[in-house]
Structure formats: structure tokens, C-alpha cells
Amino acid sequence: MNTLHDEVRSWLDSLFPNRDVPSFEVNEANLQALSDLARYSKERERDIGNINKVGRHSEESNFKGFTSHIRVLAGAPEADGRVPGGGG
Q1: N or C: which end of the chain has fewer CB within 10 A?
Q2: Is residue 11 within 8 Å of 44, Cβ to Cβ?
Q3: pLDDT tens across 10-44, in order?
Q4: Distance separating alpha carbons of residues 87 and 84, to the nearest angstrom
């Protein structure tokens, strides 16, 4: 139960930075409920982080596609000297 209490306490500390963690009765049921909430919270944070990574990658890809399209319209050369849409 000490390990579970330490995990819960650490999670609560992260929720209440620079503030006192609210007190709670330390018993098996409360620790298990708080542990479940901590696990769920960490999983959601990880999921949101993954979604944000995918979103940033998608935005970067869209931007690269947009700038490539602008180069084609302007006839500007790529970094390797090729002119997009110029056939070679």
C-alpha cells in the first residue's frame, strides 16, 4: 500500500504545484480510486500528446505542400535547383 500511496501522492503533487495537496483518508479503497484516476489522467495526457504530434506533423506537411505549390506557380527552383513543374 505504501507504493500505491507514493504514486498517488506524486500524482496529486503534480496536480497541485506550489500548493498543499488536499488531505484524504488513506485507506485501500481511496488509494485504489485515486490510483485509477491517476492512471486514466496520465493515459489521456499521453493520448493528447500523441494527437498534438500528429497535428503538428500534418500542419508541417500541409505547409510544405503549400510552399511547394507556390514555387510551382512562381516557377521558383527547389533547393536542388529543379524548377517544380518544369519537367526536370
Answers
A1: C
A2: no
A3: 888 888 888 888 777 888 888 888 888 888 888 88
A4: 7
